[in-house]
Write a structure and sequence with these properties.
Elements lengths: L3 H18 L6 H9 L20 E4 L2 E3 L2 H11 L6 E5 L5 H7 L4 E6 L2 H13 L5 E5 L12 E6 L8 H5 L1 E11 L6 E8 L5 E9 L10
Parallel strand pairs: 3-4, 3-6, 4-5, 6-7
Antiparallel strand pairs: 1-2, 7-8, 8-9
The structure holds S-adenosyl-L-homocysteine (SAH).
The site of S-adenosyl-L-homocysteine has 23 residues, from β2, α4 and β4.
Length: 217
């Protein structure tokens, strides 16, 4: 009989093949990271059997872990390199941070909800990540103490791109951010800052993220 671990591994392999490669994500590093990170450890116990399905899932506090394909797409758009320092705004479950941490030197990640930050921290520790720093706070302001960043991934939607995040992006760096006032009208943007500090924006796809909130509880 297959062990629980084997069945998660099989589900993960199928997820990468059917949901991610099939939709055109081709970066070897990203595919390998998606095959490696144990997504089932980043969802609540009651959702584990659904961890590898083609859907976002509830993680408590009214928040969600993104659909696997969206995590892969955002990671590929960021074009991560081993020497990169990355900022994530919206830690949520910690899953996106873990995927990114497979591919860069260090991930700094900020979560507004203390309970989620704590659960994510625990899941990341249990999975053995030592290159991720989690902090509770409002990511709208970025994390100036560790700036500038090669990569900024925002996983909650602001209605405009926060200036602090633009300021904290390195020349040559990339920001991936869903932008839009309502669920129905968000666009995933790839924002690149060139060597002269000029910004170049590309709209990649319509998406639905939870809103980036400003009010700390
Ligand atoms: N990246 C996550 C998905 C996060 S969902 C994952 O892999 O699971 C978006 C998260 O952003 C939620 O947990 C929400 O609480 C958080 N969030 C919303 N507004 C925020 C803000 N201003 N600063 C930091 N986190 C915020």
């Amino acid at each position: 009989m297959a062990s629980e671990q084997d069945s998660y591994t099989a589900a993960r392999t199928a997820m990468v093949r059917d949901q991610i490669e099939a939709r055109g994500v081709s970066s070897t590093g990203v595919l390998e990271a998606m095959r490696t990170v144990p997504r089932h450890r980043f969802v609540p116990d009651g959702e584990r059997h659904r961890a590898y399905r083609d859907t976002p899932l509830p993680i408590g506090q009214g928040q969600t872990i993104s659909q696997p394909y969206i995590v892969a797409l955002m990671t590929e758009l960021a074009a991560p390199k081993p020497s990169d320092r990355a900022l994530e705004v919206g830690t949520g479950s910690g899953y996106q941070a873990a995927v990114l941490a497979q591919l860069v030197e260090h991930v700094y990640t900020i979560e507004l909800e203390p309970a989620l930050a704590q659960t994510a921290q625990r899941a990341l520790q249990e999975s053995g990540y030592d290159n991720i720093t989690v902090r509770t706070g409002d990511g709208y302001a970025g994390w100036p103490e560790h700036a500038p960043f090669d990569i900024i991934i925002v996983t909650a939607a602001p209605d405009h791109v926060p200036q602090a995040l633009i300021d904290q992006l390195k020349p040559g760096g990339s920001m991936i951010v869903p932008v839009g006032p309502t669920y129905a009208s968000q666009q995933l943007q790839l924002i690149q800052k060139d060597a002269e500090g000029q910004m170049h924006v590309r709209e990649v796809a319509p998406v639905r993220f939870v809103p980036l909130r400003r009010d700390a509880k």
